[in-house]
Amino acid sequence: MQPAPRRWRLSDAEPLPGLHPVVGQVLAARGFDLAAASAFMDTSGGYHDPFGLPAMEEAVGAIRSTIDEAGTIAVYGDYDADGVTACAMLARCLRAAGATVIPYIPNRMTEGYGLHSAALAELATRGVRCVITVDCGTSSVDVALSRPATMRLVVTDHHLALAPGGSPPQLAPADALVNPKLPGSTYEFDGLAGAGVAFKLVQALESRGVVPAGSAEASLGLAALGTIADMMPLRGENRVIVRDGLPRIADLPGLRALCEVAGISPPPRGTDIAFAVGPRINAAGRMEDARLALELCLCDDPDEAMRLATDLDTQNRLRQQAVAIALAEAEEQVALVDDDAPAIVLGDPGWPMGIVGLVAGRIAERYARPTFIACLDPVEAKGSARSAGGVHIVKALDGAATSLLRYGGHAAAAGFSLDVARFDEFRELVTASVGEQNAGLERSRDFAIDCEISGIDVTPDLCRALDQLEPSGQGNPAPLLAVSGARVLGTTTFGSEGQHVRVALATGSGIVEAIAFNKPNLADHLPRNRLVDACFGLEVDSFQGLQRVRARLRDLRPARAVTLSGQPVVSAANLSAG
Hints:
By secondary structure, this protein is α/β, with parallel strands linked by helices. The protein is 36% helix and 21% strand.
């Protein structure tokens, strides 16, 4: 199979009047009219009433009763950044209220995702009277039924998986189940992350006097981090949480140290969290044990925070190395897949279970095919799936359900497990199931260009104008800009292994300094004076008190005339920058 061809899509929409020309063009390209643009950029919006969420009153009551009884509370999280931040958030608030709190994160390798009976039994022996789940628990019916008789269970979650065939979901019988996606929920926004739902619980607890005043505001940094790292859409209440939370991230010594280790000056931007901070939090659960990340989020000692942040940075480097090795091996297998195959299904016993989702995402993006990557452990093979081409990945797994032990997720991503002896059967079934959804669809990797500019436009003033569109992230990507007919002035490599490339491009009457990360061979294709088109995002780099604007390359192609006709502009010879 060959990588999917890259395609640039440029809008011919007229810029919205009364705004900075580039901002007006970006918003017009994304389908906004003036009224919608004004509402989008209005930063005065507030929060919805937390008691609009299902069973929130019951959740507050169960927690208050446990604290009044001097009972121990366990906060049971998940091992990704969303679950870790939500777990730390509630542990901090409840401890501030005087409660005895045990934060608990299951081990990805030995326990796996979700609520486990053995863990609840062990927590009961430690005197736990109430368990609050974050980012999990909605479908843990059997575990909830078999929990110790004296244990209260409060589930806060944002997942809701339909049973195969679309039948109604089975819900855990808890003392309270707080989830904006529950059937019949009338809450105004159902796109909250697990950390977002936990944040709403903190708001509710504060309003009833269960936790100290100011607890919700102090939780905003963790809520923002979890929301971005879990790739939740930055619209509605998520946009408010992230807007207010980004400036508060550095309030916590652990997160401040992690930003420092990652080379980020506070306050971080949404892209900093998505590409630098979030992956370091996730690295602990992928490579070893997420409790290291939890300790960092709970740490208040600056020296200890720096030690933990350094350890997490090391884990992240190991994660990057493991992904690079597995990705190279996966590419060898992809080369043997038919170019017209509806899906890519790969497995290997040597691929660490914690990184198969990352490999699946990279392969799905590069080849524009739904991808299923499995660690073929002889006891139980476990894998992750990522969508492409509009395929609903869980529905695809529905078609292979007879070969699976368990699976779950949502339209874009899912996890699954199976007997390793049935992997070939699974490959056939899931490939056929995907084919039923995307038969005949053209493969392409699309770049939606928001605005074409000239080099002279690349200034700090433009970056400040584009800040009106922040926070950017899932559902509100950072503006993608383009220049055409740019002349290469020179390239250099940088990084410990020369793995990154810096290129100076002359365009119009200006010069654009652009960078591409982890593209060491790109410089070989950019001889001096070559003419190229480039698309990129802009960022301000501060060094020794000076600010400069640089472009982070997304794609390059040999220069060609650009016509803003609204039609796709296809390049058969794009350079590999993305």
